[in-house]
Specification:
single chain, 541 residues, alpha+beta, Nucleotidyltransferase, domain 5, Actin, Chain A, domain 4, Substrate Binding Domain Of DNAk, Chain A, domain 1, 3 domains, six-stranded mixed sheet, globular
């Protein structure tokens, strides 16, 4: 098949498809003898860029030419850029190189990629999602859609061992991101009247900057300071090559501590061989606060769905191999915890979802059967499911509130975080003045569930690109041109539609039926207009 699911991870990435029997399978990385590709890029020179384990091995010797953990930067407005050999790379471009490596894995084994679904953390906002899609397109992939990583993992689990009417908490701790999502699995009828297994997302929480890297950093600092103590040095006196050597051995030590009670780490410090013994207890003590932080997100999610309603807890993501994670989750949900294909479940679920989308398109286009007159194994599998996900943020326009004694610029939350996707909301507004030539409709996202937010403007009343109090972000703007002599009582019908691909904003002048629309899915610099006469207002009074 030419349809694939991609888990674009912070530390490792994975690509999967459905085999001829309709079962999800991961594409083997024969070069690294692994089922994953390290999400690491090494810029050896202007003519050679290396991606994967070979790139990771250069962290020790050429760390300044290696890029890691770029997923934590993608789509962030404060993200850094990288310059090598006179060329500047953005996080989107770095991610595209990783996706290209996955694409090459398939092609090296005689396959072709036509359509893909890429996974993202459930807590990613529009800009992070848009940047991820852009990276896929830059890699030459046709991105059908994005799917939240916990939802993909639940879909993979559902395909293997579905149990009717089960409420499942997915604890997804990857290399750089953490999601906790509660899903309901039940039977339902699809549009064709057939019984299907339905996955409904009930609640989502997490942090897109919390993951295994945080545990690695603590272990690195522990070993670094132990080396200093052994050799009578300060951290500043440890050479860069030694630091890189420690960094390269941290992941191996962490893996050993998941299986053994202690791990030995041998480091060459200024020509002297130093052996550091790290016990599992040491590791758990130095990272206990990070475990607690992750569990706080679980508790926050359980405010929406009570713990007693949870039937099963799935541990997903490579970082859940750490015993301290299993123990913390088991203490919260005794007897309910399962570790489900931690490294591959997300990619496999994405592959199932990709095939579902292709099947839907095929059914809409011609409804043809296979050459044998029967559906393929893959179709038999994907036709069993339907997925109902949630909006990752709240969305709405910025408008002028003229209902009070003093006009104020406000954000009206049309669509609240956690609503069923696709989510659609429409409201009518009006020009601020008579004879306006145009109005400027601004679209915002935020993490608040309030109907209206005030703190999205500066002291002069101008809208801000970001607001840390409610994580308000200005996503983009839509210019609506008005005909001459437009009165201030002219209704402008504004519609927001949010789905996994982005935010669609539409404005209709109901007197002329002229429609203006934009699809916000790519990050861009926004030139914020200062003049208040370009705004829309709430009331017709």
């Amino acid at each position: 098949m030419s349809t694939y699911g991609i888990d674009l991870g912070t530390t490792y990435s994975c690509i999967a498809r459905l085999d001829s029997n309709g079962n999800p399978e991961v594409i083997r990385n024969n070069e690294d003898d692994s089922n994953t590709v390290a999400s690491v890029v090494f810029f050896e020179n202007a003519n050679n860029v290396v991606v994967g384990q070979a790139a990771k091995e250069n962290v020790e010797t050429d760390g300044d030419r290696v890029v890691q953990f770029v997923k934590r930067e993608i789509g962030k407005r404060d993200s850094r850029t990288y310059e090598f050999d006179g060329k500047t790379y953005t996080p989107v471009e770095i991610s595209a190189l990783i996706l290209t490596r996955l694409k090459n894995l398939v092609e090296a084994q005689g396959g072709t990629i036509e359509d893909v679904v890429i996974t993202v953390p459930a807590y990613f906002g529009l800009e992070e999602r848009s940047a991820t899609r852009q990276a896929g397109e830059l890699a030459g992939l046709h991105v059908l859609s994005l799917i939240n990583e916990p939802t993909a993992a639940a879909l993979s689990y559902c395909a293997r061992q579905f149990q009717e009417d089960r409420t499942i908490l997915v604890y997804d701790l990857g290399g750089g991101t953490f999601d906790v999502t509660v899903v309901k699995m039940s039977m339902a009828q699809n549009d064709a009247g057939n019984d299907v297994q339905k996955i409904t997302v009930l609640a989502t929480g997490g942090d897109d900057r919390l993951g295994g890297k945080d545990w690695d950093d603590r272990l690195y600092n522990y070993i670094l300071h132990a080396c200093c103590d052994e050799n009578g040095l300060t951290p500043e006196e440890i050479e860069a090559e030694t630091r890189q050597d420690i960094r390269s051995k941290v992941e191996e030590a962490k893996r050993k501590l998941s299986k053994k009670q202690s791990a030995k780490v041998r480091i060459d410090v200024n020509g002297s061989r130093t052996e550091i013994v790290v016990t599992r207890k040491d590791f758990e003590n130095m990272t206990g606060d990070i475990v607690a932080k992750a569990m706080n997100f679980v508790d926050a999610t359980l405010e929406k769905v009570p713990a007693e309603a949870i039937d099963t807890v799935l541990l997903v993501g490579g970082s859940t191999y750490m015993p301290m994670i299993k123990n913390a989750v088991e203490a919260k949900f005794p007897g309910k915890v399962q570790q489900h294909d931690p490294d591959q479940a997300v990619a496999k679920g994405a592959a199932i979802y990709a095939s579902m989308l292709v099947e839907e398109v095929g059914a809409l286009s011609d409804g043809e059967e296979t050459s044998t007159g029967e559906s393929s194994h893959a179709e038999q599998l994907t036709s069993k499911f339907t997925v109902e996900d949630q909006t990752p943020r709240s969305f709405g326009p910025g408008v002028v509130d003229t209902t009070g004694a003093k006009h104020k610029y406000v954000l009206e939350n049309f669509i609240k975080i956690g609503e069923k996707m696709p989510a659609v909301f429409t409201k009518t507004y009006y020009p601020l003045e008579d004879n306006q030539e145009r109005v400027l409709l601004r679209a915002f996202e935020n993490r608040s569930t309030d109907d209206t937010l005030i703190p999205c403007v500066d002291e002069d009343g101008n809208p801000q690109a970001t607001d840390p109090a409610h994580y308000v972000k200005l996503l983009g703007e839509l210019v609506v041109n008005l005909p001459p002599n437009t009165s201030r009582d002219t209704p402008i019908k504004v519609t927001f539609k949010v789905d996994a691909s982005g935010v669609h904003v539409e404005a209709v002048n109901t007197k002329t039926n002229e429609t203006f629309e934009t699809f916000l899915r790519t990050e861009s610099d926004i030139d914020v207009e200062r003049s208040a006469v370009h705004q829309l207002r709430i009331s017709s009074d």
